[in-house]
């Protein structure tokens, strides 16, 4: 019976509610600390959480699709080499390399020639320099620069180990004269011949007029949560307008056509580095940022940012390049034209969020703010117990209440 009564008391005690005793402290120091803490917390809750961070809104991230088109004509000199007497230390050296000379004969390169591959996901590559080698299957001398490619006798070309992993072909075991470096012997390989020979100054195939190319960017975005679709091409934009405009942050911020020179000037302000990028290649990021507020309007405009992504020129592995080949046949024999392409890779990143009023986040923000207001009580207690004349009395009462 006793145990039953105890269990009953504990069960009923679970549903008992008790209040905390309060006391009025007539101290200006404690009162000022209390109100000051409340004021700071109110400023944080209203100014930061509600207004700046828009704690009254629900948010959604952007979903995006990007389409690009490049226009412009490039020009490559025919049977003409760069003046080797030019000083490479001259700050304007690379700029002079891309200068258009009316006294030379050029071959035309259009979009189909210099945009490789024709389509990429949210990126585009524009070739500005290349090494061109027409090859067929056969036997020929290996590049002098390859590891262990130099030899004195045939036996030097037999036991090579892992060195041939970076070679252009399979060693035949013969040591022959180099076709590019007189007086030097190299190992013979069975490969696509002649092998590609990259000179330290491969300026003969620089493509002029690259800076005048234009990139048309069409960006369609969606905020699924709010059922809102936007695009960077505004309703008033016509085909005639697109054919004449060029994007500029202040003069024409709504034009979807971007000149390569304008992009590069913002991404790499240094003229010497800009032309080095055309010479050796580089990577540029185009940021399209959609930050939308659908509380007062259904329309939203993007912001464009341009920045260089690759590191500036270092001693090794500089720039951006890759190889591709076009195959063809002549009298039944298979040939290919091998290209080592240098150029600008533009990566298009789309980011952003949209917000719209929603009662749920508003209530959550207010609730969290009310919870934070209890900090002002803690601050007042600290001042009362440690920074007043009667702190000893308050501490005794606090321990008694505890």
Q: Give the overall form.
A: elongated
Rg calc: 36 Å
Which percent bin holds the helix content?
Answer: 25-40%
SSE order, one letter for each helix or strand: HHEEEHEHEEEEEHEHHEEEEHHH
Helix/strand-derived category reads alpha+beta
Q: What is the rounded distance between the termini?
A: 34 Å
Oligomer: single chain
Largest sheet: 8 strands, mixed
Please indicate the percent range of residues in DSSP E strands (runs of 2 or more).
25-35%
So how many helices? Answer: 10
For the residues shown, what is the average pLDDT?
87
Number of strands: 14
Low-confidence residue ranges: none
Task: Show the helix and strand layout.
Blueprint: H1 2-13, H2 28-52, E1 57-61, E2 63-71, E3 74-77, H3 93-97, E4 106-109, H4 111-114, E5 123-141, E6 170-177, E7 185-193, E8 214-223, E9 228-231, H5 239-244, E10 257-259, H6 260-267, H7 271-280, E11 282-293, E12 303-308, E13 321-330, E14 333-357, H8 359-372, H9 375-386, H10 391-401
Parallel strand pairs: 11-14
Antiparallel strand pairs: 1-14, 2-8, 3-4, 5-7, 5-14, 6-7, 8-9, 8-10, 11-12, 13-14
Structural write-up:
Helix 2 (28-52) packs antiparallel against helix 9. The model has no long low-confidence stretch (mean pLDDT 87). Helices cover 27% and strands 32% of the residues. Strands 1, 5, 6, 7, 11, 12, 13 and 14 form an 8-stranded mixed β-sheet that branches. Strands 2, 8, 9 and 10 form a 4-stranded antiparallel β-sheet that branches. The two termini are 34 Å apart. The chain is of the alpha+beta class. It is built from 10 helices and 14 strands. The protein has helices at residues 2-13, 28-52, 93-97, 111-114, 239-244, 260-267, 271-280, 359-372, 375-386, 391-401; strands at 57-61, 63-71, 74-77, 106-109, 123-141, 170-177, 185-193, 214-223, 228-231, 257-259, 282-293, 303-308, 321-330, 333-357.
